[in-house]
Each structure stands twice: as structure tokens, then as C-alpha cells.
């Protein structure tokens, strides 16, 4: 990991391509090119081994109407891959003694409902809180998600509802839980959520193109999203995504973030280990999710990371922490190239086979 930290001194976007085996580069290129048609919404892809880029390339269109191809440096909405940043922010505050993973959320949000007094910070990170998920409400994506809401307004509708299960006993993916974490971050840090990310993660790592995915300002380099057809992406109010899915980024920034995280440059190694370890329920079942990170085994190797899907962008950031391999894919459509998680597995498996 020490080597990875040193290589981060040089932005991935300007590093010279290493002298990798030509056959490996060609194979990776073929895997991606077979999925994405040049005239349709495309993908920016970056594959890294030990901090060195093996493949950095784009495929398809950033804007179909104007015939603008995707470039590797283009900016994409990353959806739920944002959750990995939120989790890192929480773990920073844990390391500083400002948060405790086993503390109830009511300690930090005194106005939270009393029936949440057994819901801990760790439960929110691990999607095991039992708090209802607002984004699963009928009609949410057709109506609510299209209107501007504050963080409080995104949480308020579930305050009076009963818990769906005893905290810690089940896994249910939950966007509301991550927006609650944003409220906790703001309360204990005294900074707005996106400001905290900017000051503690984004600027220190030099992530020049990672920011709040606002729809109130122009975002230089942002590609256009598409749903099936292709047709224009569904309109959403970006502030509804917030800590659960509100960032935009690039393949270079995401790889640099993952390298820094896994090298212990953001969160101490013990915290990183907790993030990377699948939570085990009382019945002995592993959820396949740690603290802000999906966890899976591929070819006997430990893979961690996060994917995101939000109308109509699809992202995947994943690292084989045993082999030092990272795959990042950012797509501006509704799976025109298939499932990014499957693609990530293919790319990582291909590199594994060469080393």
C-alpha cells in the first residue's frame, strides 16, 4: 500500500501509459468495445494495477444529438458510488472521536424519533437500520424525486413510521439511511455535507472534477444522460440524491480516491478493514456489504467498492485489494452496454489472469 500512496502524487489523468503487455491492453479494450456501440451512449473506463493505468479509454457518445464522443476526462453522475465517500467521511469523524459507530443516531440528532434509539451509526452505514426507505415509496421517482427537497424534507416522511425490523437483524439497501448520515456529518462537523467532503476528501486528494452534482449550475465536462431508446434521461432534482447519490466525478478522480482510501491516507487501516468487511447478521448470514462498500470474492480475491445507478447514469468503482487492481466504468445511459458490475468483474478477472 505504501507504493500506491506514493503514486498518488501524480494525477492519473496525466501519467504516461505503462509498458503493459500489449495482449492485455488489447483484451481489455475488446471486452469493453464489444458492449458499447459507437453511435450510442457510451462509457469512460480506467483499469489500474498497482497505481499504474493499464487502460484509460472512452467509447460511444457523450451527447448523441450533437455527435460528441465520450472522452476519458468527461464528468459523469456517479449515483450511489457517492455512498463510499459518505462512509469515508463518517469514518474520518470516527477516527477523530466525534462519532462512535455503536452510538445511537439519537445521540447526534436529538430531535430524531425515540423509536430510533436502538439504530446506530453502524446500522445506517451497513443498511441494517430498519428505518423505512423513502425512495421505495410508490410514485417516489415519478413525483417526489422531481421536486427540490432539503435533507430534512427527505427524512421527515419516515419519522413517524414504525421500524421495518429490529436494527441489525436484516439488510435492506436504504437511501434514507445515508441522507441521515449526511445530517449527522453536518451536525457534528458544523459544515454542510458537500462542503465537508470538499474540505476533507476532495481538495486534499486533488480530485479536480468531483463535486456536488447540482442542477442549478453548469458543470464543465458533464456528459448527457439517456434512457432506453436512446431518449432523454428522466428529470430529477439533484438535491434529492444528496449523500446517497449526489456526486459527479471522473474515472481518474475515482481511482485516485480508491487508492488513497485503501492505502490508509483518508481513514486509518483499522477503519478501512471495517469498511471492507462484510457485515454478518445475528443468524450468521453475511450481507455482502461492509460499511459503505459492497464486498465480493472474484477468483478467490477480495473485491470492494460501490456501484451507482441514477436516471440515467450507471457507475462502478471496484478494487481487488489483494492484487492492487482497480476498475472504474462510468456510463451515461440506461445499461446500453449491459451491467457495469458484470463488466467490472470481467476487467478485473482479465488483469488477474495476466499477473
UniProtKB/TrEMBL annotation:
<protein>
    <submittedName>
        <fullName>Serine beta-lactamase-like protein LACTB</fullName>
    </submittedName>
</protein>
<keyword id="KW-0732">Signal</keyword>
<feature type="domain" description="Beta-lactamase-related">
    <location>
        <begin position="35"/>
        <end position="341"/>
    </location>
</feature>
<dbReference type="InterPro" id="IPR050491">
    <property type="entry name" value="AmpC-like"/>
</dbReference>
<dbReference type="Pfam" id="PF00144">
    <property type="entry name" value="Beta-lactamase"/>
</dbReference>
<dbReference type="InterPro" id="IPR001466">
    <property type="entry name" value="Beta-lactam-related"/>
</dbReference>
<feature type="signal peptide">
    <location>
        <begin position="1"/>
        <end position="16"/>
    </location>
</feature>
<dbReference type="InterPro" id="IPR012338">
    <property type="entry name" value="Beta-lactam/transpept-like"/>
</dbReference>
Amino acid at each position: 500500500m505504501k507504493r500506491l500512496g506514493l503514486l498518488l502524487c501524480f494525477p492519473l489523468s496525466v501519467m504516461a501509459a505503462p509498458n503493459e503487455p500489449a495482449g492485455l491492453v488489447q483484451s481489455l479494450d475488446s471486452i469493453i468495445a464489444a458492449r458499447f456501440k459507437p453511435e450510442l451512449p457510451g462509457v469512460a473506463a480506467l483499469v489500474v494495477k498497482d497505481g499504474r493505468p493499464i487502460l484509460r479509454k472512452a467509447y460511444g457518445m457523450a451527447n448523441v444529438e450533437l455527435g460528441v464522443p465520450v472522452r476519458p476526462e468527461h464528468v459523469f453522475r456517479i449515483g450511489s458510488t457517492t455512498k463510499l465517500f459518505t462512509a469515508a467521511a463518517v469514518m474520518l469523524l470516527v477516527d477523530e472521536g466525534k462519532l462512535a459507530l455503536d452510538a445511537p443516531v439519537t445521540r447526534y440528532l436529538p430531535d430524531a424519533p425515540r423509536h430510533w434509539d436502538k439504530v446506530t451509526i453502524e446500522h445506517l452505514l451497513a443498511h441494517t437500520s430498519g428505518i423505512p426507505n423513502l425512495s421505495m415509496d410508490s410514485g417516489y421517482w415519478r413525483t417526489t424525486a422531481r421536486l427540490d427537497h432539503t435533507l430534512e424534507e427527505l427524512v421527515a416522511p419516515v419519522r413517524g413510521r414504525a421500524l421495518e425490523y429490529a436494527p441489525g437483524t436484516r439488510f435492506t439497501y436504504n437511501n434514507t439511511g445515508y441522507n441521515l448520515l449526511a445530517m449527522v456529518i453536518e451536525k457534528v462537523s458544523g459544515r454542510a455535507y458537500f462542503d465537508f467532503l470538499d474540505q476533507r476528501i476532495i481538495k486534499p486528494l486533488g480530485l479536480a472534477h468531483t463535486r456536488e452534482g447540482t442542477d442549478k449550475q453548469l458543470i464543465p465536462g458533464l456528459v448527457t444522460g439517456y434512457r432506453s431508446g436512446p431518449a432523454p434521461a428522466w428529470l430529477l432534482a439533484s438535491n434529492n440524491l444528496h449523500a446517497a447519490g449526489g456526486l459527479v466525478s471522473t474515472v481518474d478522480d475515482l481511482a485516485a480516491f480508491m487508492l488513497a482510501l485503501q492505502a490508509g491516507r483518508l481513514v486509518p487501516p483499522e477503519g478501512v478493514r471495517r469498511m471492507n468487511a462484510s457485515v454478518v447478521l445475528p443468524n450468521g448470514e453475511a450481507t455482502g456489504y461492509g460499511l459503505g462498500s459492497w464486498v465480493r470474492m472474484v477468483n478467490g480475491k477480495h473485491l470492494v467498492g460501490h456501484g451507482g445507478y441514477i436516471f440515467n447514469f450507471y457507475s462502478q468503482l471496484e478494487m481487488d485489494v489483494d492484487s492492487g487492481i482497480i476498475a472504474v466504468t462510468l456510463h451515461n445511459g440506461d445499461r446500453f452496454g449491459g451491467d457495469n458490475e458484470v463488466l467490472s468483474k470481467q476487467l478485473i478477472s482479465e488483469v488477474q489472469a495476466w499477473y
